[in-house]
Amino acid sequence: MTLLEARDLQTRYGPGCPRCVESTGDRAGTNQCPHCGSVVACADADLSVEAGEVVGIVGESGSGKSSLAELLALERDDDATTAGEVHYAGHDGNLLEVDYETRHDLRTGEIALVHQHIRDGLNLEFTGGGNVAEKLLSAGQRSYEDVRARIRELFDETEIPVARMDDPTSTYSGGMQRRVQIARALATDPDLVVLDEPTTGLDVSVQARVLDMFRRVQREEGVAAIVVSHDLSVVRLLADRTLVMRHGRIVESGLTDRIMEDPHHEYTQTLINSVI
Amino acid sequence: MNDLPTQRSRERVTMTEHTTTDDVLPDEGTPVATDSVDAALESLDSDGLEGYNYAYLDEHTKREVRRSVLKAVAIPGHQVPYASRPMPLARGWGTGGIQASLSILGPEDTFKVIDQGADESINAANIRRLAENTADVPTTTDTTEADLIQSRHRIPEEVLTDEQRLVLQVPITDALRTVDPSDAANRRRHAHKNYGKMWVHLYENVVEYGEIKISSRYPTMVAGRYLMDPSPIPRWDVPKLDHADHLTVLAAGREARLYAVPPHTEVEPLAFDDRQFTVERFPEQACHACGSTDTYLVEVSEEATEDGDNAFETRYACNDASFCAKRRKNPDLPKDHHLEEAVDWGPGTPDAPTDDAGTPVEQGGAGE
Amino acid sequence: MTVLSVDGLSKTFDMHVLGDTQVVGLDDVSFDVREGEFLAVVGESGSGKSSLLKCLYRTYDPSSGEVVYHSPDGDIDLASCPDRTVIDLRGDSIGYTSQFLDEIPRVPAVDVVARPLIEQGVDREDARSVARDLLSALSVPESLWQAYPATFSGGERQRVNLAQALAPKPDLLLLDEPTSALDPDTRRAAIDLLSTYLGSETTVVGVFHNTDVVDAVADRVVVLDDGRLQRVVPTEAYDEEVVLG
Prior knowledge:
Chain C: GO terms for molecular function: ATP binding; ATP hydrolysis activity; transmembrane transporter activity. By secondary structure, chain B is an alpha/beta fold.
């Protein structure tokens, strides 16, 4: 079953002109329009995500992968001009055009975003449990004990010591904070989780454990995921399929192992060969 | 607000006196001698209020406040901006309440002002005197006699009726500011009834204290739509707003916003299904003066009359001074004594030491 | 009954990083794989054995030709079907293991082996029990079952790898030198396991370096040379060639 279908997605920063799209991208070698100076963060992006599938998006900084992920997670950036269509199973119309409330409902229910920066996703003054509770309470849960029980379950699942659930999130280690983000994302049993750079700011050893935990939970819950990373090994470990982005365009896509072992596009070959 | 025509006629009278007084220049107010303050005061042949508008505020200001009040009544719990003029006392001392009161008051109204339950605090007395002097209204300390009650941080113990209006002074207008300092973000939350952050605040409260222990400014849903800061009244008073017969106007001078709870409006303090809203309880305590056990009590420290180890002793006393005075004369006086039919008004008797959920009750009176 | 029909399979790599040179991996390879058989792929180093397996698994995108998988639900051309079809087939019918274990660090060996079963919906403890049996059959010391494979020796890792590939008993199993780092005794244990654990329902296409493995398990042998198919012969015939050669 196709969960999400996106067509012709575009994010632009700047005034824009008729030649923006044709003057940027992989062939032009830039994402900045030489005519009007606008930055075309991503354009011409088509993709679909099946239920339970993990799609990776790789590319270097500024390649447009986070812009694309934000569109798919229905995150809004007031400074950006966006276009395109996002269709989601069970919802009519283009999700990029829905009102605040529908978007809010989707974001508390079906689609969850794990922010790259922990501070964007968590309130560090709240307890770890409180950060997870927010998702549940926003979704309308009104029983304190039910909320507590669900938090314990999620802490267990994401391997956070349940004994720490009532401590301020600011006292957690980076790895634990990332787990709280993931627990929070999973709280309302979403169909799709978007992870933006899930290993940012984590020690290498912690990265592995967080990724393994996420992969296990993702498979067990059957939740689909879009994983954005500049780090090929993150995508290699998590994603079934991978999109490679450069200068705001998807330059190659395919099975993750195929991308890694038989890269077709010149840029992808360079990228693969650059891995230390 | 049945007194508007009277107000207008009163104003016309004032204007007439004003223009016929010889030593008053129409545009420059009352001239006074300027060599010294004493001389200036000496030169005044009245109480110095000539040239002032009825109820101190000019008609445009009052009209604007009334319009905002009407809008606030139309959208219960929604914060409505108004101009908020400079007043002859500092912001934060009830300037919002005064503007609302003076805009609503007419000469046939009887006015009562309380400050945390006390009629005799300096601030309450000054506000009362301002209204007496400028709006020519009789004042009272008896809740049941007042048509308009301006209050800081309390709702009276005696039941308010559909003939009465309550103006509450508000320091902070938005309940959500506790969880997010951004007014812009909070307005968006109100627009979309997105109160998840406040629910987390309650959750965290229960985590920390085992129950929701917000002592004042308890977040409250009005008419199932807007989250309201009921001003720093104790939890004790919040249930009095639910389906009340009277109109409550809440006004903030510094923030230039006001909002209202119209009569017969549902007012529901936020709480979990299994962690219910509780009011303050005072088990084993009674007012030392009148013996009441069904009123909001506060601890008072007084110098001990007998000498002993403690220089001070702590006693409990009614916070509502005027009702306490009545109870001292008649200890059995019910809170709805002035009404023909019994009215359920705020917290019940102190006999129930626990709430419905079995949560242990809080000891002692909550401060702010 | 034929389970896999490889027809005219070619693979050319366009190496942009090497100044747009083309490297031929496979050139017009055709053969059939029969259901339940064990087909060994042999050839010199660089003859295209691994490329063939990777093309069958779609880790390499075939440049031309067909790889028709005759599944119970109908024929699927593995060379051209959508990525998602490949993902689905990998999930429940086609297994693959390479010479190199590719696992997330800090996952205990027993969980590495149990994972494919758990992902197929097998109860966690049942899956672990199967995993322990497999590790035991491959003589992985019990003390290592809860340890992280990243710390293992090459041979130990390879055994974990093989156990993981075998665990879900796929319909078609592609093995790329799964025993290259094993000592003769362990290799023999692995060979025994291939026949005893998998049974006749699983079709195996395997690249093997050691002729003793080919001898022991293969029904037929595919011989590759420089990316081209030399011949497909029964194992006995191949043995004679080797002896004669």
